[in-house]
Write a structure and sequence with these properties.
Blueprint: H1 3-19, E1 22-27, H2 33-45, E2 48-52, H3 55-62, H4 68-72, E3 79-84, H5 88-101, E4 106-112, E5 115-117, H6 119-126, H7 131-143
Antiparallel strand pairs: 1-3, 1-4, 2-3, 4-5
Helix pairs in contact: 1-3, 5-6
């Protein structure tokens, strides 16, 4: 990869980080190709995207974002970024459900609304009910006497 290609990758990653509702850092060491394809498909179904590139380029893309300092500490080894464009809890749930069946996948950190999230905070986010259920609960509460 030459310098202009690296700059392009950094710019694309930075734009995706800025445009997405949340981003999750996953360690994928040990996953085979078929498992990676299954994970990408499940993420796509929920509005998520998995990007894999060099950790050094990811660090440069995170620079300048709110909460990026704490997030960039975990950018080492074989890591990938998962971007959640619309529904961050649904994407987090996909990641944790996939990690239950594939021990090689590990959710390390997250970045949501300019704040770094730990693995436990992401697990809590994944346990939230879907958006439609929350709206139904709210509507039911409003209809109650």
């Amino acid at each position: 990869m030459n310098r202009t290609q690296k700059e392009t990758v950094i710019e694309i990653l930075h734009e995706q980080l800025a445009d997405s509702q949340a981003a999750f850092l996953v360690n994928y060491r040990g996953l085979d190709v078929v498992s990676m394809q299954q994970l990408r498909q499940q993420l796509r179904d929920k509005g998520g995207v998995l990007k894999i590139t060099k950790a050094r380029l990811m660090k440069r893309a995170v620079d300048g974002l709110g909460g990026g300092d704490a997030f960039s500490e975990s950018l080492q080894d074989q890591v990938g970024l998962v971007f959640a464009r619309d529904d961050a809890p649904a994407v987090a749930k996909v990641l944790f459900d996939f990690a239950k069946t594939n021990e090689a996948l590990e959710v390390l950190r997250g970045l949501m609304e300019a704040e770094a999230l730990s693995g436990e905070q992401i697990k809590l986010l994944a346990s939230l009910p879907p958006r439609e259920v929350l709206i139904a609960i709210l509507a039911g509460t409003l209809q109650a006497p």
